[in-house]
Design brief:
The structure is a single chain. A hairpin with a 2-residue loop joins strand 13 and strand 14. This protein has 379 residues and is of the alpha/beta class. The protein has a single domain, classed as Alpha-Beta Barrel (TIM Barrel). The strands form four sheets. The chain has an eight-stranded parallel beta sheet with strand order 2-3-5-7-8-9-10-11, with helices on both faces. It has a two-stranded parallel ribbon with strand order 1-12. Helices cover 32% and strands 16% of the residues.
Amino acid sequence: MKVRGFLLFALLLTFSCSPSHPAPVNPHATPEARELLDFLYGISGQYTLSGEHNFAADLSRYDDEVFSITGKRPVIWGADFSFTDVGDGFERYQHAGPLNISVPFDKPCVPTGLTTEQARQNIVNEAVAQWKQGRIITLMWHCCDPRFTDGGNNCNGDKVWTMAENAPSAREWDQLCTDGTPLNKAWKREMDSVIPFLKQLQDAGVPVLWRPFHEMNGAWFWWGNKPGADGFARLWILTYDYFTAQGLNNLLWVWDANAPRVKENDDALAYALFYPGNEYVDVLAADIYGWDYKQSHHDELVRLGGGKPIAMGEVGQLPHGPEVFDAQPDWTWFMVWGYFIGGHRSTPDHLETVRSIYDAPRVLTLDEIAFEKGRHRVR
């Protein structure tokens, strides 16, 4: 156990008092969701939870790889409700882990034989098991463009990665976000395909850090590159309202942009252009790849959220050293995207970096978290 002295005492004292942090944006949030958000507020500025993403074809592979490198387990367990790829050339999308394809970069790239429903059920079962071990669950959703799906999240991969020239037009976007139109009904059918699985988690007492529509400030997903109040914000609010109306009260809503960047044919625009407002967001997050750990990525999220927790929703390469977490103290968690933790990237320098992050005093691992009666605290 790391020595934390007075800092640890102060944090434990905070947790022993009645919660005074803001409640979830959903006024009907479950007690477990409220406890989890309160925990995130409590560690903000002091600790960062370690996390790892896993794919539907092998839901523990990268957790196990973390353990083999560090001898420790991450606190955050992540997975993706994803989509079933029904097109040709599905290996082009293997890196993101479609539900019916083998783990990214496994060769040969082959279908698993799992249906959408079977794969999602496996994810739910694993999430419940991980929660019981004290893990915190985060789920995302690579969802199909509702213009090109049967309503069950089965589509060609290129109907998720819709580049600018194939993105929904302004008219189509308006129809998508207008109640009762055919395109709006198609999106509701698609939402209906994941709601029963999230309800299973609610029934099991599992709160979820729910981060749909990640990287919306880039142009590579069909939901992306729609700035302004009539753009992406409308879709986020529509989705929040629909899920909440269906009685999904175990979700903490994680708005997860890409770290802003200027990169030829791969720009990510400013956070604020896509933010739906604090009344619809519990946690603000950024995805960071290529060691792009700029101070501004952290500071601008802090300002935009006005005191809400922030997180690294996805990262590729971990920072070169733990000093990043000292300079950017408000990150409440990071989640490495699957195979970036090791595998074909396992050079000695890389592995030493992973160990240094997992050993950092500010970074918490599962052995440093106490979990009892649905409540987490720092040991």
